[in-house]
Amino acid sequence: MKTRFRNLHNAYFLPSGCLILENPQTDHFKPFMLRLKTLFALRIIAIVVTISAISPVAKAQEITMEQTLTYINSKIGPIGNIDVIRGVIIAKFNEGVDIYREDQVLCKSLDLNSMGYDASQKVFYINCNGTSKCVDRQLFMKKIQRDYARLSFPANLDAKSVAGMKKAFTHMIKLVLDPKYESSEPFE
Prior knowledge:
188 residues, PH-domain like, 2 domains, four-stranded antiparallel β-sheet, 3 helices, 26% helix, elongated
């Protein structure tokens, strides 16, 4: 029985589907049991991966705590900086290089429905739950520590930025209180 070879560059296909590659170092053939069915299966997998990659049902990227803090800090900066450590919001305000004020408050102590912006004083604020004084404020220049009923940030905001700050603070507090919370909705 005569065997037919189909010649490719340094490779031969047998009629059974086996691939024989030429080894240029020893100048003889080494058989590799690579079947055409395997090649066909690899093509199908490649097509499925390509289709799934260009699928229009792409999930939007969730907004992380770091991205939220960056957004808030961009609105209250350069004199203010906010961070969240173990469920405590820490807001530091400085004049030049010296920190003149630091506020600390538990995230769960704030009333998200009471957020607002006082345009006359240029202050964004969030009240505490009920009538309690949940914000611990230290004024370093005067060496005074007081409790306050609201967390406030000096900022010059327009209506779009105020709405963005409300979304950002809501997102930040939900991230702290609910570890499974995810959102990809932009703040502005």
